[in-house]
Amino acid sequence: MNIFSGSASKELAKKIAKSLGLKLSPVEIFVFPDGEKRIRIKENVLDKDCVIVQSASIPPDENYMELFIMIDALKRSGAKSIKAVIPYLGYQRQDHIFRDGEAVSLEVIAEILTKVGMTELFSFDLHSPKIPDIFSVPVHHLSALPIFAEKIRKEFDLKDIVLVSPDMGGIRRIKMISEMLGNIPFAAIEKNRDLSTGEITDDGLNGDVKGKIAIIVDDMISTGQTMVEAAELLIEEGASRVFVFATHAVFAKDAGKLLQHSRIERVVVSDTIDVPAYNQFPKLEVLSISETAATALKN
Ligand code: R5P
């Protein structure tokens, strides 16, 4: 197996390669003055199984374009199979039409990936369990939740905590982690987002957090607004402390600053997205999903 990294996921790709007992295979990514890229695979991949690790993190369009071209380069070099590890699948929140006139952007991404030659997809904590159906190739839907559950079990007394979903859409996820921890109690916030402005309002809490340590679990943190507002509400509702666990550290705009200066005590994320130095902050802790990805690639 040959494993390649796109520019967005070098740290994670190195860790996955190490777990597989491999080194990253060389690829030349040359950027022209106008921003276009020229990709050249610098290893013989004829009839080989190839893996590319590339998250569709910020800037998503640029990282996707690089991935499309890398897949094409591998296909033209005669690779037998091309497995794309896209730990954070960008555009996944646009998996259906919310309002008339909209595109289904994730379908566009899926069509391009398969058209250029991706033969399998590996991704983490997809926003909806229906997303794999959009793809015409096998999709391995992996999760950081078992790693989060293990961390929670180690660091907290389970009888002191309540798990919280920051929106009703996250109930399935919160039930899963609750089961992993022996069916511990959970609550959910009724969050509404204005589709034109992106503004968030909450309509209250379903469940009881009084005197408990609230642990919010979500698939991603983008601007951080959801988490910060959820933490405020939980403290108002009597939670003693608030912690956050989220798989994808998208960290748009000033998310880091917002989270650091919030009521949240610690923000635990996974490394599905390499967190650059400028997005790191003292309350942040990153757990690696590299072993999970490596195990899935081996099977
Ligand atoms: C929404 O449904 C997602 O699960 C996240 O809660 C959301 O994308 C987080 O966005 P932000 O950090 O910008 O509030």
Overall description:
By secondary structure, the chain is an alpha/beta fold. 29% of the residues lie in helices and 27% in strands. It has helices at residues 10-19, 60-76, 105-116, 145-155, 171-180, 225-236, 255-260, 290-298; strands at 2-5, 27-31, 37-41, 49-53, 81-85, 120-124, 139-142, 161-165, 186-193, 200-206, 213-221, 241-249, 266-270, 284-287. The protein has a 7-stranded mixed β-sheet, sandwiched between helices. Strands 1-4-5-6-7 form a 5-stranded parallel β-sheet, sandwiched between helices. It has a two-stranded antiparallel sheet with strand order 2-3. Strand 11 (213-221), helix 6 (225-236) and strand 12 (241-249) form a beta-alpha-beta unit.
SS elements, strand count: 14
Strand order of the largest sheet: 10-9-8-11-12-13-14
Give the SSE order as H and E letters.
Answer: EHEEEHEHEEHEHEEEHEHEEH
Unreliable stretches: none
Quaternary structure type: single chain
Which percent band covers the strand fraction?
Answer: 25-35%
- Say which molecules are bound, naming each kind only once: ribose-5-phosphate
Mean pLDDT metric: 97
How many helical stretches? 8
Q: State the end-to-end distance.
A: 12 Å
Shape: globular
Gyration radius from CA atoms, angstroms: 20 Å
Q: Largest sheet, described in full?
A: 7 strands, mixed
Helicity range: 25-40%
Q: Could you say which structural class the secondary elements and strand pairing correspond to?
A: alpha/beta
